[in-house]
């Protein structure tokens, strides 16, 4: 098995992911939301790029859906949920289809549909993702959604942790960037200490989202691995 990393949604190229198993990471906060919502009873998640596209999906059968997402880390006007995973813990989306649009994560998902398998990962389900990757046995590309098309420390350390979990199971070949992510994680296993330097972390902190940050940095509190199949994310 080979492991590689793509460092932002803007760097996704079909030739790098075609035929591969990919893991989409946007730990602050889109993939943490997806994992949390599905774990707490959401039926499925439809990730879209544009706000109007999200509204179009739900307009004829609004009772079946909830709308969630953000722009500039803030809740979108008229949506049911922001991009906080904490809003899904009480089962508010149970039995509903979540239509979701975010600045980075849903963009990365929609740019990666040529992959053979697409798994959704975050710190909160990292070890389960690693086990699924080992089970599938295909070459892996971990895609960091990044922040506004740029490298993001938080996604990179999450990648490093997932790689560390994989290495506990099997031997792999890694690209230089995958080796670097794993090394960076091992030097900073107390995630928040280092992630506090990340630009996106501090944007969320300034918005008063400390509890979101603490939740998203927790390791392995959920044991499901959502997968994107035919336009929707399910478990």
Automatic annotation (TrEMBL):
EC numbers listed for it are: 3.1.3.71
Specify the enzyme's EC class, one word.
Answer: hydrolase
Q: Which reaction does it catalyse?
A: (2R)-O-phospho-3-sulfolactate + H2O = (2R)-3-sulfolactate + phosphate
Q: Does the keyword Magnesium apply?
A: yes
What is stated as this protein's family in its record? Belongs to the ComB family.
Q: Does the keyword Nucleotidyltransferase apply?
A: no
Write one Pfam family the protein is assigned to: 2-ph_phosp
Q: Which organism is it from?
A: Clostridium brassicae
InterPro entries per the record? Answer: ComB-like (IPR005238), ComB-like_sf (IPR036702)
UniProt protein name: Probable 2-phosphosulfolactate phosphatase
Co-factor(s): Mg(2+)
Could you list this entry's UniProt keywords, alphabetically sorted. Hydrolase, Magnesium
């Amino acid at each position: 098995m080979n492991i590689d990393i793509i460092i932002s949604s803007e760097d996704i190229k079909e030739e790098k992911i075609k035929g591969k198993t990919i893991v989409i990471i946007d730990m602050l906060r889109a993939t943490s939301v997806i994992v949390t919502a599905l774990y707490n009873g959401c039926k499925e998640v439809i990730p879209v790029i544009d706000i109007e596209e999200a509204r179009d999906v739900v307009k004829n059968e609004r009772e079946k859906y909830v709308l969630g997402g953000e722009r500039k880390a803030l809740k979108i006007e008229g949506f049911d949920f922001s991009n906080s995973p904490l809003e899904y813990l009480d089962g508010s989306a149970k039995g509903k289809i979540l239509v979701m649009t975010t600045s980075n994560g849903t963009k990365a998902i929609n740019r990666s549909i040529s992959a053979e398998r697409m798994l959704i990962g975050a710190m909160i389900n990292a070890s389960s993702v690693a086990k699924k990757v080992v089970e599938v046995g295909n070459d892996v590309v971990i895609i960091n959604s990044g922040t506004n098309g740029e490298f993001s420390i938080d996604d990179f350390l999450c990648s490093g942790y997932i790689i560390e979990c994989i290495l506990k199971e099997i031997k792999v070949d890694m690209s230089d960037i995958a080796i670097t992510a794993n090394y960076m994680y091992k030097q900073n296993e107390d995630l928040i200490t280092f992630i506090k330097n990340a630009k996106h972390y501090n944007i969320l902190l300034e918005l008063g989202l400390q509890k979101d940050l603490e939740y998203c940095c927790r390791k392995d509190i959920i044991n499901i691995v959502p997968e994107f199949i035919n336009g929707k994310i399910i478990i």
